[in-house]
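Record 1 of the preview.
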Amino acid sequence: MLKKNIKSYLSKIKFGLGYNPKIESCQDWSRYIPRPYKSVLLLSADFEMAWAWRYSKSSENPLKRAIEKARIERHNVPLMLDLCDQYRIPVTWATVGHLFLHACSMMNEKPHSNLPRLDHFENAFWNFSGEDWFEYDPCSDLERDPEWYCPDLIKKIIDSQVDHEIACHTFSHIDCRDGVCTPDVLKAELTECKSLASLLGITLRSFVHPGHTIGNLDVLAAGGFTNFRTDYENLLGYPQKHGCGLWELKQTAELVFKESWSARYHVKRYCEIIRRAIKSRTVCVFWFHPSFDVKMIDEVLPEVFTFLRDNRNDIWITTHSEYVKFLDSKHE
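->
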């Protein structure tokens, strides 16, 4: 607890001194921010349900934790959508492809036997040493196991008053690093996601690597994606276009409720970040897990969204793919 409190205190100091997030400069900011705006704000969600936590190293019982997180997410997503409708805030929902399914069953005595598997691996967040990557897939349906299937919430996103974006977060929340994931594995996962999304008339253009496991960029570009999000540092800056044609959208901060901070401080901090983005004419990239503490929805985001509404003339609030359309028009 002492270590966590010290870290929280130091974070406040760095923020107060203007060191976090780091601010980039650019002589021709208009190539990244359309006039008459002074800043661009992107907000994205890692929409995962139980798939993200089943091999988590932060829990003694990862599967139990995965179910708990999914139930929180089921509670929070409709509340978040209502809040977005109220303030007209679009979100890029980076969605695990399996959530499109209403049901699935065993194929050749294995879940999703048509898909190639990851070998055992370990990263900063997960440790996969199980028998099969899909070993926890219940192979049932939405009614019996709503933590693993989510077409109902995806429909709510699509039917919202705001034009949200459905993006891709792989089919089964895999580690995408080049040394872990072969191109064939990612290609198969992307194909499955695009096929399911197309049934709803959705073309997937934006991608978020699960667990920030950046890799296989050429595979993404070949699959028709235009952009991906990174979290190498907290940054108010500008996107970068890679040789493969993909735009890298660099994170500014995660929207997460920290128990060592008051709700008032959360509001002050996030609004100040937006204020700095406007002043420096930079791009602000916020992201969140919908399984975050509901205090974010009840006590923090309404005030942050009010601040955005009051400064809407200075901020273009848009989705990843819509922003990339603008970038491409300026960087042909």
